[in-house]
Design a protein that fits this description.
single chain, 8 helices, Molybdopterin molybdenumtransferase, EC 2.10.1.1, six-stranded mixed sheet, 19% helix, transferase, molybdenum cofactor biosynthesis, 425 residues
């Protein structure tokens, strides 16, 4: 359990720069705790529900399979008819195909039914003999091996029992979930509405890709990065407020519009202590309460997280690598909680270092890595591309993912166990 730090209330930029640097894990916990799940629900067809967040637990209205059915092409028999030593010969009294709804009642003893995969097994018949283990002659069939009761029969409810829970509340509906729901006859589901995430970039030096650059200007890569990451989140809707110059008034106006129409506001740039860093002052002007000011991590230290009028606020650094790491590791878990997901943390995998490097103790570091092979135990062997600066992009583009260097260690040594998050995850 953690205790909230003193929140920043004064609407001035210098107030937002004070405050003790907190541990990475504490920053994640604080960010997630600030996110309050949306409540509005809607009904959607299965076809429109992929990736959406399940609003209530879903239970099966029927058993699956709903009736005993054959797992093979062959002959349905009654094991009680197998008296004495084989082989055994039965009269074939009819055939049953998938979708056959006819009743096959009152059949004489020592009779069999030609049956096909998926066809209902008639009452009283309790086994299916594969056609390869039989010999058919006209309306007679000879069976050479005594079957056990239930052989090649899929029993009603053996996969899913009527009333059993299929999908838990707070789960993002996968293709596998939707397939299961369709199999039990569910046509639509109740999901939480998409959360609206406002994106805003600040910096008078920023231009959009495709526009001409003047000396001293750079292209805005953060906007593309964040939109691309959120495009993989079907539970989110992006509202893009574009680039806002380093103007306190224009930033304050953009923040006001974003807070009025969105559930969360994610900004890039303007969160450090420079004279032209006005983002936090604009947020404070509209009542921002900041719980996270500086994080003991590299890259991503000058991160601001809090609320503006109960809306989640995340002020990311302007440097691309820092923005990427802070967003993936701290802000995205909070957005998942806001959307109603029960699983909010990234999925880390075990790996081993294929390199050595020094690091500052007491600070969690994230480094771009790629897989160079496998260890003797089969774990990915990681190659460090470069630690670089917060603004370097090539290493991230070449990386397979990010490795976490724990805060308590001062050196990463060859073959040391590490946690690894693939970018494809």
């Amino acid at each position: 359990m953690f205790h909230a730090a003193n929140r920043v209330l004064p609407a001035d930029c210098s107030a937002a720069q004070s405050g003790k640097t907190i541990a990475f894990e504490a920053a994640v916990a604080k960010a997630v705790a600030l996110a309050h799940t949306v409540r509005y629900r809607e009904h959607l067809s299965l076809a429109a529900s992929l990736g959406r967040v399940c609003a209530v637990a879903i239970h099966s209205p029927i058993a699956l399979p709903p009736f005993d059915n054959s797992a093979m092409d062959g002959f349905a028999v009654r094991t009680s008819d197998f008296n004495g030593d084989g082989p055994w010969t039965f009269r074939v009294a009819g055939r049953v195909a998938a979708g056959d709804v006819r009743a096959h009642d009152h059949l004489d003893p020592r009779t069999a039914l030609r049956i096909f995969t998926g066809a209902p097994v008639p009452a009283g018949f309790d086994a299916v003999v594969m056609q390869e283990q039989c010999e058919r002659s006209s309306d007679m069939v000879t069976v050479f091996e005594r079957p056990r009761r239930g052989r090649h029969v899929r029993l009603a409810g053996e996969d899913v029992g009527a009333g059993s829970e299929l999908v838990t509340r707070g789960k993002a509906l996968s293709a596998r979930d939707l397939t299961l729901l369709a199999a039990v006859g569910i046509a639509d589901v109740e999901v939480l509405r998409r959360i609206r995430i406002g994106l805003l970039s600040t910096g008078s030096e920023l231009k959009e890709p495709g526009e001409p650059l003047a000396h001293g200007q750079i292209y805005n890569s953060n906007r593309v990065m964040l939109r691309s990451l959120l495009a993989a989140c079907p539970w989110a809707e992006v509202v893009d407020f574009g680039i806002v110059p380093d103007s306190p008034d224009r930033l304050a106006d953009a923040v006001e519009r974003a807070v009025a129409s969105c559930d969360a506001l994610v900004t890039t740039g303007g969160v450090s202590a420079g004279e032209e860093d006005h983002m936090i002052a604009a947020a404070l002007q509209h009542g921002a309460r900041l719980d996270v000011l500086k994080v003991a991590m590299r890259p991503g230290k000058p991160l601001k997280v809090g609320t503006i009028q109960s809306k989640l606020f995340a002020g990311l650094p302007g440097n691309p690598n820092a923005a990427l790491v802070a967003f993936r590791q701290i802000i995205l878990p909070a957005l998942r909680r806001l959307a109603g997901l029960t699983e909010v943390q990234p999925h880390w995998f075990s790996a081993v270092a294929g390199f050595t490097c020094k690091k500052r103790q007491g600070r969690t570091e994230f480094a771009p890595v790629r897989i160079s092979g496998r260890s003797e135990t089969g774990e990915p062997m990681l190659e460090l591309i470069e630690r670089g600066s917060s603004a370097n992009l090539m290493a991230i583009a070449l990386a397979d993912g990010i490795a976490l260097f724990p805060a308590e260690v001062a050196e990463i040594t060859d073959s040391m166990p590490l946690r690894y998050e693939p970018f494809s995850n």
